[in-house]
């Protein structure tokens, strides 16, 4: 029976690629929010001081009233949310979220890209241009008002 089982598993290339596509579709469908997105939201919550609140939504589990912010998941009731907060998955996620935020700057540095910021060769010229721009802008705005 060994040969028969091998055949049913589908070791040929064709069936494997098909299977992969199906799995990829499921992966993207169930993909949770990325860590940096969660960190952005948590930062905003900390800034405003308001806890995350969702309006009642029938499409979400539990009407969207039982939400775990670090995991970005909705739960059906308070009991499941409580058991979830005690779970290993949630604790692991908390650790991930508490890590330092990964930025584009860091990614560029890792890839060997760096952006050098030079001091202006003629600082007095730069300052003069900035002054010019400031004086021109209000004058132009005044001219627009005259036209109206
Ligand atoms: Zn959680």
From TrEMBL:
Subcellular location: Cytoplasm; Nucleus
PANTHER family associated with the record: ZINC FINGER PROTEIN 593 (PTHR46095)
SUPFAM superfamilies: beta-beta-alpha zinc fingers
Keywords for this protein: Cytoplasm, Metal-binding, Nucleus, Ribosome biogenesis, Zinc, Zinc-finger
The keyword Cytoplasm is annotated on this UniProt entry: yes
Residue ranges, compositional bias (Basic and acidic residues): 24-34, 95-116
Domain C2H2-type, residue spans: 66-95
GO biological process: ribosome biogenesis
Region described as Disordered: 1-34, 79-116
InterPro entries for this protein: C2H2-ZF_Maturation_Protein (IPR051879), Matrin/U1-like-C_Znf_C2H2 (IPR003604), Znf_C2H2_jaz (IPR022755), Znf_C2H2_sf (IPR036236), Znf_C2H2_type (IPR013087)
GO cellular component terms, A-Z: cytoplasm; nucleus
Record protein name field: C2H2-type domain-containing protein
Molecular-function annotations in GO: nucleic acid binding; ribonucleoprotein complex binding; zinc ion binding
Basic residues: bias regions: 1-23
Family: Belongs to the ZNF593/BUD20 C2H2-type zinc-finger protein family.
Nucleotide-binding as UniProt keyword: no
